[in-house]
Amino acid sequence: MKIAVVGTGYVGLVTGVTLSEIGHCVTCIDIDQTKVEKMKKGISPIYEPGLEELMKRNIRENNLFFTTNHREGFKDAEVIYIAVGTPEKKDGSADLSFIEEVAINIAQNINRNVIVVTKSTVPVGTNYHIEKIIKQNLVNDIKFDIVSNPEFLREGSAVFDAFNGDRIVIGADNNKAAQIIEEVNNNYGIPVFKTDIKSAEMIKYASNAFLATKISFINEISNICERLGADIEGVAQGMGLDNRIGSQFLNAGIGYGGSCFPKDTKALIQIAGNVDYEFELLKGVVKVNQKQQRILIEKLEQRFGELGNKVIGVLGLAFKPNTDDMREAPSIVIIKELLNKGAIVKVYDPIAIESAKKVLEPGVNYATSVDETLYKSDAVLILTEWDEFKEIDLSLFKQLMNQPIVVDGRNCFDLKGALENDIEYYSIGRKEINRKSEELESLSNSIR
Ligand SMILES: NC(=O)C1=CN([C@@H]2O[C@H](COP(=O)(O)OP(=O)(O)OC[C@H]3O[C@@H](n4cnc5c(N)ncnc54)[C@H](O)[C@@H]3O)[C@@H](O)[C@H]2O)C=CC1
Ligand SMILES: O=C(O)[C@H]1O[C@H](OP(=O)(O)OP(=O)(O)OC[C@H]2O[C@@H](n3ccc(=O)[nH]c3=O)[C@H](O)[C@@H]2O)[C@H](O)[C@@H](O)[C@@H]1O
């Protein structure tokens, strides 16, 4: 089938590339000329494992094209996917200006009957808004249908998710259109769930809000565990064994970040507010997340008192491993606060340094390796659980740092290893490990 995809962020690019991989002829359209030039050469503008190989192959086989020109991109397209951003406005609601612009682009440039599929995460009712804008601005006498097809991929495993997702949600009022979009997706081999348009739009927000709730919940439990001397890892494992709860998304840490959970939770609070419903639970989730992002600063202050002139190394900047995406990364909030408190901040990330430079405060020192970050630091914070950090030789902390104090926001190391390597180790929801502690012997025995 001939398909156009508008917008080549994570969602648009992965959608376009994987649709070409399953046998469609796809043209991706973006208004960013530099990005399009890169993509035409098979270079991915985002770091996403496996994506570039698929891009290159499908470009070579003439299944995948890129353009900045909407008319050229829509030419003969039977299906048009909308995958532009829906960022957060100041009041927390979703900014639909990119979506509205694309609706006008479509109305002015389509030359045949077409199905318009919205992949972007949009508030309930937006697909009808898109339909209205297209109708009002149509230039040619053609017919079109609208379909909601929200995206559930995760950054860092987006290609894997495209072929192994749990479900594809198709929301439509017209059975024929729903059936065609189901056929388009056939070769992904993923179960399809069909529903009406508004419910499909809500499934996306409710899913993200639920996952965010799970994270804030386990983070609160971890804070209580710390105070009571219970161990969050065991608690999460024990909870997850109940199939009704499930073991995923129970990793306590420094709060969720990224381009979607923070904005989608706030947008859903607004969506509910618009129909006079106060979503109290979700408001709590957002508040807990904001508090959790500061938890490592509290731990540092408890240990040092003042942070002025302390050299703090930071390992990990991206909001999660395997991506260079810095959108709403907890590292931004934490580093800003460290600088405000007068600390000297040295940071390292295996992939996200260049994107981090665009968003972090001036005054940050960028290191090029773990060793350089550790060297003569008074404490090290771990903010992203990259494999490179999980595999660090633990003896390096004592060898390279002024004092081996590690405040780990992602529970990368086991307590026994930290203890054996003389690390003063603070993590999330677990016992503190500290050679200075008088309980050292008994603690050591209990861990062994
Ligand atoms: N990033 C993610 O992992 C996921 C994102 N989503 C949702 O998907 C949507 C897109 O998100 P991202 O891929 O992160 O977007 P993004 O913001 O990274 O990229 C959007 C792209 O659209 C382009 N664009 C804007 N207006 C355009 C126009 N009129 N014509 C052509 N191109 C245009 C921009 O130049 C940009 O390259 C959002 O609604 C988001 O909530 C859903 C699931 C996962
Ligand atoms: O709508 C979206 O954009 C996407 O949002 C998330 O995907 P993503 O943001 O890429 O990453 P996640 O793996 O969900 O992680 C989000 C944040 O939660 C944090 N997290 C995740 C899991 C966990 O157990 N604990 C935890 O703190 C991560 O560190 C990260 O900061 C969802 O998982 C996707 O299904 C959805 O499509």
TrEMBL record:
SUPFAM superfamilies given in the database record: 6-phosphogluconate dehydrogenase C-terminal domain-like, NAD(P)-binding Rossmann-fold domains, UDP-glucose/GDP-mannose dehydrogenase C-terminal domain
E.C. code: 1.1.1.22
Pathway linked to the protein: Nucleotide-sugar biosynthesis; UDP-alpha-D-glucuronate biosynthesis; UDP-alpha-D-glucuronate from UDP-alpha-D-glucose: step 1/1
Residues covered by the UDP-glucose/GDP-mannose dehydrogenase C-terminal domain: 313-415
Coiled-coil portions: none
Top EC category: oxidoreductase
Gene3D superfamilies attached to this UniProt entry: Cytochrome c1, transmembrane anchor, C-terminal (1.20.5.100), NAD(P)-binding Rossmann-like Domain (3.40.50.720)
Domain of life of the native organism: Bacteria
Pfam entry (one): UDPG_MGDP_dh
Catalytic activity, reaction form: UDP-alpha-D-glucose + 2 NAD(+) + H2O = UDP-alpha-D-glucuronate + 2 NADH + 3 H(+)
InterPro entries, A to Z: 6-PGluconate_DH-like_C_sf, NAD(P)-bd_dom_sf, UDP-Glc/GDP-Man, UDP-Glc/GDP-Man_DH_C, UDP-Glc/GDP-Man_DH_C_sf, UDP-Glc/GDP-Man_DH_dimer, UDP-Glc/GDP-Man_DH_N, UDPglc_DH_bac
Keyword terms of this UniProt record: NAD, Oxidoreductase
Family membership noted in the UniProt record: Belongs to the UDP-glucose/GDP-mannose dehydrogenase family.
The protein's name in its UniProt record: UDP-glucose 6-dehydrogenase
Organism: Priestia endophytica DSM 13796
Lineage, opening ranks: Bacteria, Bacillati, Bacillota, Bacilli, Bacillales
